[in-house]
Amino acid sequence: MGGVTVPEADVAVAIQTDLVDRAVRAAAASGLEKSSRASRAGWLRALAEALTAHSDELVSTAHRETHLSTARLSGEVVRTATQLRFFADVIEEGSYLEVTLDRPDPTLIPPRPDLRRILRPLGVVAVFAASNFPFAFSVLGNDTASALAAGCPVVLKAHPGHPDLSRRVAEIARIALAAAGGPEDALVLVEGMDAGRALVRHPLVRAVGFTGSIRGGRALFDLACARPDPIPFYGELGSINPVVVTSAAIVEHGDALAARLAGSFTRDGGQYCTKPGLVFVPTGSVEFEDALGAAVSAAPGQRLLTAGMAEAFASSGSALAARDDVSVLAAGQDSDGTAPVVAAIDASGFLADPETFQQEHFGPLTLLVRYRGAAELDRALALLEGSLTGTLWHGSDEDPALLASLTNALARVAGRVLYNGWPTGVAIAWAQHHGGPWPASTASVHTSVGATAIRRFLTPLTYQDAPEAVLPEELQEGNPLRVPQRVDGLLRMPLPFPSGRARPR
Q1: 187 burial class (0-12, 13-18, 19+ CB within 10 angstroms)?
Q2: Which residues contact 285 (CB under 8 A, 6 or more apart)?
Q3: Spatial contact of 265 and 276, defined as CB atoms under 8 Å apart
Q4: How many Cβ atoms are within 10 Å of 182's Cβ, its own excluded?
Q5: Cα torsion for 164, 363, 212, 134, to the nearest 10°?
Q6: What was the pLDDT predicted at 500?
């Protein structure tokens, strides 16, 4: 280059930028957004079948790269295939399109024209795979499934924690799409940090789905906002998932409550985004704490997903344990990896430094906060940051006013409030919400699990006085595809096709 030496790092960035550009342009040219709902539903089911057919091979690779158990990983393959089939059902049903028609009415002031509104695909979506769910939140995970269902091609940035698995799943997916008559470039894989940054900046990328750390997510979020044309960034970041335990719950559920808490926060090494990381318990709950300590002491260690995560967990856990106002109640066995830990602090200490005690420890650690009475608990709950979940353990005869008060406190900071259960485990359902106020997510009105996850990758378009020929079939007279519609303000549910099953096109 005329004698000018270009730093190797700059060359690497330029190469990654070029690879990303080709990947995005291939995805944009795939034609997925012009496909019918019926076609996309078929392709999603084909992806589910292909994933299931290669389960043994993929689980073996995932186990080698992530250290998660084969039983856990096999179940996750089933979950991932279920998600793909679920979104096929969602788009066949059709209500996600929010089809709305207003008939012309010249008598109104101002006169109303013929207005027909529908949701349509945004365009290419960048998806960043997560480390802790190498199937369900990775190459063919929730973000990918919902984006493809919406008609948006996906460029997937692989997670470095399971690169071989990511490449193989992408290869299987592309082959399955082509075999089913679909566009294989509807899913393209890229790798590397530089590729991730280039992906967020690419002018043809119209939205980003991210699951990961607050630090990494915030950096990419800022990039998305700093573009000349800012785009939506749907990030699922950190969450401590507070749990409130009442005195009546301690009495009624006893040792079983302690054992189930231990099982929840140590599950798969505590590497769940819904891990209960902060548990408010009444001061003086000695038997509960002893039972919890015994359960944790007997719990085996778990190798964390990556060496970096293990180092970060050890560092943050050590810093917490070294504080004068924190006591370590129990530590598990570390012969097989990172040992689980349960620590405790008085509510007065939490109130003095709430930010420190709400830092997420990605691994098997939970912190008990001992509160003295309702007033102190209320003050502590008022300082909570956003989380994916909030849990309330209560007695069967609990005061309704107390239940309502605690529910309101948790609902202020969580996207899902649950009772007498544990948040680890997120059902795939129409009513599911997996999101929450910052820092749990960057867009608390949206979810990354459940039917409405598809809404993130759709944008509304209204046709005014449009010729019938240009209208999508879902907006045409007679509702030929029989989708749910709102007409002149009234919701109309279509009669089923004679076969009993919706037949979209």
Answers
A1: buried
A2: 245, 247, 250, 370
A3: yes
A4: 24
A5: 30
A6: 46
- How far, in Å, CA of 237 to CA of 235, rounded? 6
For the chain, count helices (H), then strands (E): 14, 17
d(CA 442, CA 198): 20
pLDDT in the model for residue 354:
96
Q: Give the model's pLDDT for residue 1.
A: 37
Tell me the per-residue pLDDT of 144-179, one tens digit each, with 9 for 90 and over.
999 999 999 999 999 999 999 999 999 999 999 999
**What is the radius of gyration, based on Cα positions, of the chain?**
25
In 3D space, the residue among 86, 71, 80, 85 whose CA is nearest the CA of residue 129 turns out to be 80
Whether pTM exceeds 0.85? yes
Q: ω into residue 276 within 30 of 0, thus cis?
A: no
The answer to whether 484 and 491 have CB atoms below 8 angstroms apart is yes
8 Å CB contact between 124 and 153: yes
Specify which residues 212 forms β-bridges with: none
Separation between Cα atoms, residue 273 and residue 425, nearest integer Å: 10
User: What domains appear along the chain, each with residue ranges and CATH number?
Assistant: 11-237+446-457 (3.40.605.10), 242-419 (3.40.309.10)
Whether the pLDDT of residue 263 is over 70: the answer is yes
CA-closest candidate to residue 472, choices 124, 36, 89, 28: 36
Pick the catalytic residue from 273, 289, 376, 385. 273
Choosing from 65, 76, 236, 360, which is the catalytic residue? 236
CA angle 384, 254, 297 (to 5 degrees): 80
Query: Hey, is 272 helix, strand or coil?
Result: coil
Does 225 participate in catalysis according to the annotation? Answer: no
- Say which residue the tokens 């409130």 belong to: 244
Task: Give the end-to-end CA distance of the chain in Å, rounded to a whole number.
Answer: 54
Whether residue 443 is predicted with pLDDT greater than 50 in this model: the reply is yes
Residue 152 known to be catalytic: no
Q: How far is CA 162 from CA 72, 99, 138, 175, 267, in A?
A: 16, 40, 10, 20, 20
Q: Please check whether residue 210 is in contact with residue 235, taking contact to mean a CB–CB distance below 8 angstroms.
A: yes
Residue 36 C-alpha from the chain's centroid: 26
Q: What is the pLDDT of residue 318?
A: 92
Cα–Cα distance for residue pair 290/376, rounded to 1 Å: 23
